[in-house]
Amino acid sequence: MNSLNIKKLTRGIVLFSLVLILGLAKNSLISKADKSNVFFIGNDMYEYATDCSGSGWAWDYSTKTLTLTNYSGSEIVFDAPRYSNTTLNIALKGTNSFSTSSSTEAAINVNGPSVSIKGTSGSKLVIGNKNYTYGIYCSNKLSMINTGVAINLNDSTCVNAVYSDGGITFNGLEGSIVGGEAVKAGSAIYITGTTINKYIASYKNGSIYFLSDENVGTVSKYSDIATYASHSVTFTLTKEKKMEIAGLGVNKYFINNGIKYYIKSTTEVTAVGVPSKSITSIEIPDTITYSSDLTFKVTGIDNKAFKNCKKLKTVTIGKNVTYIGKNAFQNCTKLKKVTIGKNVTSIGANSFKGCKKLKNVVISTTKLKTVGKNSFTTIQDNATITVPKSKYTKYKKMLTKVCKKKVNIKKAK
Fold first, then answer.
1. What is the tens place of the pLDDT at every residue in 13-52?
2. Residues 251, 117 within the same domain
3. Distance separating alpha carbons of residues 202 and 9, to the nearest angstrom
4. Measured between alpha carbons, how far is 180 from 226 in angstroms, rounded to an integer?
5. Exposed/middle/buried for residue 17 (C-beta within 10 Å: 0-12, 13-18, 19+)
6. Three-class DSSP category at 29
7. Same domain for 284 and 406?
8. Which of 161, 184, 313, 411 could bridge to 135 as Cys pair (CB 3.0-4.6 Å)?
């Protein structure tokens, strides 16, 4: 055989060997035997160190980010052991779905780097219900952040719906993970921004750890994984996480139905003002809802909140408001009627000063303790203030000090 033929034969053997090795690598990532530093999208192979893209996905090597946008496929496999000290970022946009008709190790299968799966508003990760041994498999640490999940692998093929050799962090997940021992890790599992309905078991140095919705934030040992491993885990976002995703937080503000509110806590807001002073009617509700699922009690009206709203004519204050701040409605010169809710305990000084047309005030609360100076001193002559029958004597004495002499204080019917 001449030298040219020998070279051709040698080259053919090398190429065949490379294809064989890469083919075996794809099917043996969980054994972590391959060192090829490549990744697969479905059946197509790509180099880890090269930017590339396809239908519903784009890979950016500089940031180590795979962006999935309404992706649909069978599997994504990263074999990059050389990058075990880095983090592979998987950014989710829209609904990203995985399913397969044949036996497959994992929908998302990563050997080498840690993995951070992070969603955007409304994103979701869906993994179908058959033929996967693992829904997500990671040889390093895994974090799943701010995304919806629907991993349903409820058949005998599944070992774990989510598995990581390192620790797992769930931060702001909503949805469910079902299949085998649903979630398992080589270290502790941490949960923030979400609560869970069942126990999650994890391995660490031969011991069993779990976190539950009854004891989130702590780790306890158990010796029997069969008892504490869960086949189904449901995640529910905490209110703090929902607020964070919506761009809200304690000490921040938002506008609802033309009124500006201050977020006092995860459960309470107070009314602090209006974007437009031309408002003609104000109703402070018992509760307000932001972004369809964030509900807050309205518990106060802050100082000067509606001062100088010259076109304001009527005000109704809800049952959860406990105070009306100083100068809250001062100089609302066209204000005619005010209804004060059932739980107000204090009315601040000058709160209705300068409301010269105010002629009808209904006080529903039986808990009023203080009425500040000049609260009603300049309201309309012969105005009527109606108070609860049971508090008539006490309130008349209190209000007489801060009202015009001609104001009529009467009992509610």
1. 433 444 444 444 444 343 333 445 889 999 899 998 999 9
2. no
3. 51
4. 11
5. exposed
6. helix
7. yes
8. 161
CATH code for the domain in which residue 357 is found: 3.80.10.10
Distances (CA, A) of 59 to 17, 120, 274, 352: 27, 17, 46, 62
SS3 400: helix
Phi, psi dihedral angles at 406 (to 5 degrees): -85, 0
Token digits for 38?
Answer: 């490549």
The domain tally of the chain equals: 2
Please compute Rg for the chain using Cα positions. 32
Same domain, 17 and 143: yes
How many other C-beta atoms can be found within 10 angstroms of the C-beta atom of residue 383?
A: 20
Burial class of 46 by CB neighbour count within 10 A (0 to 12, 13 to 18, 19+): middle
Name residue 16's beta-bridge partners. Answer: none
Q: Provide the token pair at 102.
A: 């044949």
Taking residue 34's Cβ as centre, other Cβ atoms within 10 Å add up to 19
Between CA 202 and CA 133 the distance in angstroms is 18
